[in-house]
Amino acid sequence: MLKQIRNIPRWVIFTIDVIIILFAYTSANLLRFNFHIPQNELETIFKAFPYVIITRIFFMFFFKTYSGIIYYTSTEDAQRIFISATLGTLIFGMVNFISHHFIGVYLIPFSVMIIDFVLLIFFMTAFRLAVKIIYLEISNSNRIKINCLIYGTSDEGVIIKNMLDRDTEHEYNIIAFVDDNPGKSKLKIEGVSIRSGNDLEKIFSEHKIDKVFIAHHVTSSAKKKILIENALQHNAEVLHIPPMNKWINGELSIKQIRQVKIEELLERNPIRLDEDEIRKELCGKIVLVTGAAGSIGSELARQIIKFNPKKLYLLDQAETPLYELELELKELCAPNKFEAVLGDVRNYDRMENAIRTFQPDIIFHAAAYKHVPMMESNPSESILTNVLGSKVVADLAVKYKVGKMVMVSTDKAVNPTGVMGASKRIAEIYVQALDKVCASKNETRFVTTRFGNVLGSNGSVIPLFRKQIEEGGPITVTHPEITRYFMTIPEASQLVLEAGAIGKGGEIMIFDMGESVKIADLAKKMIRLSGLELGKDIQIQFSGLRPGEKLYEELLNNNENTLPTHHEKIMVAKVREYEYNEIKQHIDELIQLFNTQNNMAIVAKMKAIVPEYESNNSVFEKLDK
């Protein structure tokens, strides 16, 4: 039945429209003469019949009033009917004047023309609306009923409602629009009440809300968190509407609506950058980013290009990700503003050729191995990339008089419990010691930035959990109590730029990572955001701490071991400093141990360089004893 209504052929609609034309004209004459048409008028009426039918059909064909899909009837269809009827009636009027002028008779009385015009528009529009209403009533009885909220009363919010009203598979019952503007409270949009954002808890308590739709640009991060937390507590699915410029042909489709990502729940309000200081540091300068194809390196590239550097060089040994970044940046700026370069930071000759040729003013060194368990199993590779690679870039920066090098480090370098964190700490020690030598000669300055986990970065816990959810689980968490600090990729990259701009040299800058997050709670929220139920649709399994992994991470962000900067989210760590010649000798000895491939000897040397390095859940714990 539904399919038959939905797919009414055009010829059927055309036939019904012709019948309506006949009915409207006949009814107009009957009404004009009070249902008693004089005999002498009948002949004129019958003469006019073909002329009326042909004229009306002509304009029906011209404006294709019969071609619209009935159950999509809209104001545009009504507009076509109105224009078609109006032009036909105007033609009748012109013919009437001509007829009266030459033969002294009106072919169609003007009163009949007006009545016919009104009846025609009314019945043709009513027919289409009746079919649409019947279709919707029948389809609604078979559709799944869903209670929902729309957060935002902008144009996007209204468009969301109209889109939901048109959905043929579900019956969306819009409980309310929600808006943070108290002035809009108690108003209505298309019959739906507007409620205050302060009433969220009350709304969820009063109604069983199944879905919450968030218009793209509404609400701050803090308010969005409150909304999502409320929705999750009441088992409501939260959906996000893409920005209008992403809509297909300017129209929103139900298929474009996506689930809210956990990153949006964890993100904080946008940070305030000293853009003038960053612009002064980067505008018109030659910039080199190592590890440019990685999560942080690629975002650094996107951010740096906005500050109009003279040239941006993107160096990485990962061919495919570097190529993808190149394609992306070509859409953001002119191809001559940047260059993608394949190269390995461990290869001195290749790096020397690159830095000598490019003559960068500033280097952002983001190239590193970062996976804790992987580095625990491969210590020699860790020192080759994280230590030797950093040393190669730093030494060449000094040799070719680069103005500044900003090294991206990690919170795992604080009291390291694994090879990865220890290798990054050794790299920190080297560049900080080298900076003291350069400072006395007014040469290259070195700034280190240190932060925790980055949301959505390659290999991080969130993409892993998302993949496990898509595959039906289980989600694997190492320990029920394990916690981590999180920061978004753009936020981390922006703070790296800010720290690089304000750093004078020799500092280890640490970032305010906010509150730590329990990973088990993170997994539970991701499950609920996916519309699944823990224990029923998917399970969480605890696999135990991995080699070198900490239960709680440290950031050194209290008043006893940090100094403030002008930016509230950036502090300078107070750490032990090393004498350059001494640390260089130790690091050279460590790098030479690579050729032995003796992991115990390599890690023992790392522990000698970093006394606070104590292994955790690792085969190297025996070295601490």
Question: In words, what does this structure look like?
Answer:
The chain has 625 residues and is of the alpha/beta class. The chain has 3 domains: 2-139, no CATH class; 143-260, NAD(P)-binding Rossmann-like Domain (Rossmann fold); 275-624, Rossmann fold, CATH 3.40.50.720. Helices cover 49% and strands 15% of the residues. The protein has 22 helices and 22 strands. It has a 9-stranded mixed beta sheet, sandwiched between helices. Helix 11 links the parallel strand 8 (286-290) and strand 9. Helix 2 runs antiparallel to helix 3 (39-63). The longest helix is centred in the N-terminal third of the chain and has 33 residues, at 110-142. The radius of gyration is 36 Å and the shape is elongated. The N and C termini lie far apart (80 Å). Mean pLDDT is 79; it is low at 1-5.
Task: Give keywords.
single chain, alpha/beta, Rossmann fold, 9-stranded mixed beta sheet, 22 helices
Layout: helices, strands, pairs:
Elements: H1 2-6, H2 10-32, H3 39-63, H4 75-103, H5 110-142, E1 144-151, H6 155-166, E2 170-179, E3 188-189, E4 192-196, H7 200-206, E5 211-214, H8 221-233, E6 237-240, E7 258-259, H9 262-266, H10 275-282, E8 286-290, H11 295-305, E9 311-316, H12 319-332, E10 338-342, H13 348-358, E11 362-365, H14 372-377, H15 379-399, E12 404-410, H16 419-441, E13 445-451, E14 453-455, H17 461-470, E15 475-477, E16 483-484, E17 486-488, H18 489-502, E18 508-511, E19 517-518, H19 519-529, E20 540-542, E21 562-564, E22 570-573, H20 580-592, H21 599-609, H22 621-624
Parallel strand pairs: 1-2, 1-5, 2-4, 5-6, 8-9, 8-11, 9-10, 11-12, 12-13, 13-18, 14-17, 15-20
Antiparallel strand pairs: 3-4, 6-7, 16-19, 18-22, 21-22
